[in-house]
Write a structure and sequence with these properties.
Oligomer: single chain
CATH architecture of the largest domain: 3-Layer(aba) Sandwich
Strand order of the largest sheet: 2-1-3-4-5
Largest sheet: 5 strands, mixed
CATH topology of the largest domain: Cytidine Deaminase, domain 2
Order of helices and strands: HHHHHHHEEHEHEE
Strand content: 15-25%
Helix content: 40-55%
Number of domains: 2
CATH class of the largest domain: Alpha Beta
Structural class: alpha+beta
Shape: globular
Distance between the termini: 60 Å
């Protein structure tokens, strides 16, 4: 029996339910797209539509962490009702975050905050901006690469951190291959970002390579000097 592409997609998506993933990994084990799909799926006709729309919404949020109703309704498939629901969820998260500011005191803290990216099939480069007390101002993916490579420029790394008046950042990226060994490109990029941070007065605390099993900390290996 032949299956259409849509049927194959739906079958694949159902092999492990969201509830099963949460039971296995915890809610932090879900990727950004998975979280957004579950939020918007009741408003859309199919899971495939929800996934496409979720990616567009996430792209919009990467460009503007505080979008307007008009910003969201400009995305195909996003009604005013859905846009309002997204804005409400974002505001609840913002207010809750303000009440429970999380501080970074070790590489393991960075790992916990970025762990959900370890299940992505492409490399994601993540920036975590911190205030003077090393409390998290935001954590966001700034670039997504192919299966085994992602590129990040210092201007992209520091752009939102400057706007947020961050005094420090931590960076991380996942290795879908599962290896924790830094590549020559990883080492070179880390040096460039650290030097750029010195010029800007924004300290780069650490760079983590992350997998679902563990992490590699440039700081712990004496590579942030």
């Amino acid at each position: 029996m032949a299956y259409t592409q849509m049927e194959l997609f739906e079958t694949f998506e159902k092999t492990q339910t969201i509830a099963e993933k949460i039971a296995q990994y915890g809610v932090k084990g879900l990727g950004d797209c998975e979280l957004m799909v579950e939020l918007i799926r009741p408003y859309l006709s199919s899971r495939a539509d929800a996934k496409r729309t979720a990616n567009e919404i996430l792209d919009a949020l990467n460009c503007n962490v505080t979008p307007s109703l008009t910003d969201l309704t400009g995305i195909k498939g996003v009604s005013k009702e859905l846009a309002s629901g997204i804005l409400i969820a974002l505001e609840v998260g913002r207010r809750k975050g303000e009440k429970t500011a999380r501080s970074i005191t070790s590489p393991n803290d960075i790992y916990k905050e970025t762990y959900h990216f370890t299940h992505e099939e492409q490399e994601h480069f993540i920036v975590m901006a911190l205030n003077g007390a090393h409390e998290i101002l935001f954590t966001k993916c700034i670039t997504t690469g192919i299966v085994n490579k992602t590129l990040a420029h210092p201007r992209e790394v520091f752009s939102d951190a400057i706007k947020a008046r961050a005094t420090a950042i931590a960076i991380a990226h996942n290795h879908p291959s599962g290896t924790l060994e830094p590549s020559d490109d990883d080492i070179s990029l880390t040096k460039r970002i650290r030097l750029a941070g010195d010029i800007l007065g924004i300290k780069v605390l650490d760079h983590l390579i992350i997998t679902d099993k563990s992490y590699y900390s440039f700081l712990e290996h004496g590579m942030m000097e």
